[in-house]
Amino acid sequence: MPLVRQAVELGADIIKADPCDDVTEYHRVIEIASGVPVLVRGGGRAGDREIIGRTVELMKQGASGIVYGRNVIQHPNPAGMTAALMAVVHEGASAEEALAILERGDVR
């Protein structure tokens, strides 16, 4: 969180930050960002349910978006995972709705 504060003090237009170990505490990062949009990094490789559930919670906590790499690129169905995550970020989809998109292979 000190790095987020420093970024704000230095005049950042947008901040890319790591997720917290407890995503329900991410609102503290958002508060420290003082209105500067915060994009959350994906972190290590995680299972579908975990990454989608975490993304839903991060968006509820006030994140502006996500910057995921390996959890999309290394997924067996990158297009489906992208569609599922886009539904969470842009449409407020629940974890169950996003997992259904991934399972159906919906690509918009």
Description:
The N and C termini lie far apart (36 Å). The model has no long low-confidence stretch (mean pLDDT 94). This protein has a 3-stranded parallel beta sheet with strand order 1-2-3. It contains 6 helices and 3 strands. The chain has 108 residues and is mainly alpha-helical. The protein has a single domain, classed as TIM Barrel. α3 packs parallel to α5. This is Aldolase. InterPro entries: Aldolase_TIM (IPR013785), DeoC/FbaB/LacD_aldolase (IPR002915), DeoC/FbaB_aldolase (IPR050456). It holds the Pfam family DeoC.
Annotation keywords:
about 50% helix, TIM Barrel
Write the H/E string, N to C: HEHEHEHHH
Q: Which architecture name does CATH use? A: Alpha-Beta Barrel
State the secondary-structure class. mainly alpha
- Please mark out the parts with pLDDT under 50 across 5 or more consecutive residues, or reply none: none
Topology:
Elements (H helix, E strand, L loop, with lengths): L1 H8 L5 E3 L9 H6 L5 E4 L6 H13 L4 E3 L2 H4 L4 H14 L3 H10 L4
Parallel strand pairs: 1-2, 2-3
Helix pairs in contact: 3-5, 5-6
